[in-house]
Design the sequence.
């Protein structure tokens, strides 16, 4: 298999300073005198702050005044539990109200016509309940589905957005697949996302990947967008059909993919022309994070780096737009070979 030129398959307590001495008028050197009688104005040695003008607090007890009256009361201290970061006292923050048990987990919702329709078609997760406005309930693909009537405001409150198109559904958790299962496919085409964090981008890339017949999508477990209702909406329901795997480390997955016979191509601003490589066989296309691109270790695991030509004044493309162009370039290269 040929690759762009130059890109082969590489493995990879002293005390603090003294203050100024006191004045020379009366008393011992270094001991300031009080203007009202020459008494030592430094206050008690225990740091209780008895001297006027000293805002130093301390743990020692105050001496009662000479007239026998009670000492002035001190403001109550607030105790700070440093282990938990909680301040206890009269101004302590009141505990938050417990979460409403009737409010669903946002991750277990779908909203919009396409996401719900594709979830019913794919049957990868159970659609337990559907709410719809009167007009949306007339969708022909809802025949045979138990639908409860709801108005738009109620649906907006339940979905947390007004982009529901008159439909909201309760569903089961999204079912991720194992990355090793993706590599078992014959000549797989896999898209790996290196910390893409916008669910809209994740959904758009998933939609294109499913459209070109990709084997699956790989995302990291941390510092990455997941399959949320927003991602499902952006994908037009494609996430219900496209197998998506979560991995602990993208670079490690790329090593496993190369061990399984796949060629790994990373997308970057500077690289070989994207139509140069031979995309036949197993291929993993790696897209970097928004604004950051590929991390160094991930890029080192790539067999080659490819780039799209930019003829206009804009210096870069959105990651989902770049993924779409590259995936159709890969599809064209694989189709031409067949």
Sequence:
């Amino acid at each position: 298999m040929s690759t762009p030129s130059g890109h082969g398959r590489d493995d990879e307590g002293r005390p603090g300073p003294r203050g100024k001495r006191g004045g020379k008028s009366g008393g011992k050197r270094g001991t300031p005198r009080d203007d009202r009688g020459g008494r030592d104005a430094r206050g008690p040695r225990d740091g209780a702050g008895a001297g006027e003008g000293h805002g130093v607090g301390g743990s020692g007890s105050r001496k009662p005044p000479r007239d026998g009256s009670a000492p002035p009361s001190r403001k109550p201290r607030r105790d700070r539990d440093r282990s938990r970061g909680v301040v206890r006292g009269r101004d302590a923050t009141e505990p938050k109200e417990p979460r409403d048990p009737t409010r669903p987990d946002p991750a277990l919702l779908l909203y919009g016509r396409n996401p719900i329709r594709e979830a019913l078609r794919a049957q990868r997760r159970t659609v337990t309940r559907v709410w719809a406005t009167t007009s949306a309930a007339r969708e022909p693909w809802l025949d045979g589905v138990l639908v409860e009537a709801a108005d738009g405001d109620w649906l907006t409150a339940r979905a947390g957005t007004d982009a529901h198109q008159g439909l909201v559904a309760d569903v089961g958790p999204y079912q991720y697949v194992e990355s090793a299962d993706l590599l078992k496919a014959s000549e797989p085409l896999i898209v790996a996302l290196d910390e893409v964090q916008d669910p809209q981008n994740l959904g758009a890339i998933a939609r294109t990947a499913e459209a070109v017949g990709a084997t699956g999508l790989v995302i990291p477990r941390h510092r990455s967008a997941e399959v949320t209702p927003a991602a499902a909406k952006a994908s037009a329901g494609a996430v219900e059909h496209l197998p998506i795997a979560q991995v602990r480390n993208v670079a490690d997955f790329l090593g496993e993919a190369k061990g399984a016979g796949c060629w790994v191509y990373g997308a970057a601003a500077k690289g070989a022309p994207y139509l140069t490589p031979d995309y036949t066989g197993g291929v993993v296309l790696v897209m970097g994070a928004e604004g950051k691109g590929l991390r160094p270790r991930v890029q080192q695991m790539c067999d080659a780096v490819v780039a799209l030509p930019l003829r206009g004044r804009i210096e870069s493309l959105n990651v989902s737009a770049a993924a779409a162009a590259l995936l159709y370039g890969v599809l064209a290269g694989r189709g031409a070979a067949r």
Remarks:
- The longest helix spans residues 319-337.
